[in-house]
Amino acid sequence: MLKSTQLSKGFFKKKALKNVDIDIAPGKIYGILGPNGSGKSTFMKIASGLMHQTSGTMTFEDQPIGTYSKSKIAYMPTEMFFYSFMTIKTVGDYFADFYDDFDLDAYQELIQFMNLDMNSKVSSLSTGMGAKLKIAATLSRNAKLIMLDEPLNGIDLVTREKIIQTIVKKANDDNTLLVSSHLVNEIESILDEVIFLKDGEVVVQGNAEAVREEHNKSIVDLYKEVFA
Ligand SMILES: Nc1ncnc2c1ncn2[C@@H]1O[C@H](COP(=O)(O)OP(=O)(O)OP(=O)(O)O)[C@@H](O)[C@H]1O
Questions:
Q1: Domain range spanning residue 8?
Q2: What is the CATH classification number for the domain harbouring 161?
Q3: Which of 9, 33, 144, 216 is the most exposed place for a label (fewest CB within 10 A)?
Q4: Is the CB of 54 under 6 A from ligand 1?
Q5: Which domain of life does the protein's organism represent (predicted)?
């Protein structure tokens, strides 16, 4: 589905990604795991078409990243991306206008599930509320690939649980979720596949259960060992 081959990205002298080979299959939840600065966001930005690689290739369903992939991939960046004058309701209307695959009913349900108020203004939301809104808006698209960059950042424990449940509910045989996080202990249980990125390089990649068996430890413990 999404495939990178020898993908590299440099920012002046800094190499954010180094010869990254990743092959993402449909119907699974992937965790792209690594500490700050390991290249997770750079990988997602290239997949979403917001950034271009320095060398190597990235394809979605065998086509280069472009108009087709953009219509099939939903991407939630770490930054807020709503106009502050909007209300939660108008964010939904705006997304529904913008994306053919946006499901307004699902959005309303998610907003309710996240205990948000449709009439709240974006400018009045706390960091955690804003994070919930981003997730609700992104997960209301029936996209083939949904990429969530650090969905648990700045979120309290109870809400994290809700977000994790929402991600699991969204996953089905026809879509794929790629979730970046450094809060590995919180998301290990929902991951089918894991990718560890260290200084722009893939250092572990595979089925989560197979990785646990091979290393005879949990993903969390392996993460601590690799990134110690
Ligand atoms: N626009 C940019 N200009 C210069 N350097 C950049 C730029 N974007 C990313 N980098 C550098 O590339 C490296 C990878 O950054 P990236 O944001 O992909 O990491 P990350 O794993 O997503 O980290 P975080 O968890 O902190 O978001 C870092 O060293 C970062 O400083």
A1: 2-204+217-226
A2: 3.40.50.300
A3: 216
A4: no
A5: Bacteria
Q: Are 178 and 148 in contact (CB under 8 A)?
A: yes
**Cα(220) to centroid of ligand 1, in Å?**
23
Instruction: Give the tens place of pLDDT for each residue, 24-66.
Output: 999 999 999 999 899 999 999 999 999 999 999 999 999 999 9
Q: Work out how many domains the chain is built from and give that number.
A: 1
Is residue 129 within 6 Å of ligand 1 at its C-beta? no
Query: Would you say residue 210 lies in a domain?
Result: no
Complex ipTM > 0.85: yes
Judge contact between 194 and 31, C-beta under 8 A.
yes
Residue type (1 letter), 67: T
| Residue 211 within a domain | no
Closest CA to 202 of 72, 12, 7, 25: 7
212 domain-assigned: no
By C-alpha distance, which of 1, 147, 142, 19 is closest to 63? 1
Tokens coding 143:
């996209």
Which residue owns the Cα nearest ligand 1 atom 31?
37
44: Cβ below 6 Å to ligand 1? no
Looking from the CA of residue 41, the nearest atom of ligand 1 is 22
Cβ of 11 less than 6 Å from ligand 1: yes
How many angstroms does the Cα of residue 38 sit away from the middle of ligand 1?
A: 7
In a domain, 22, yes or no: yes
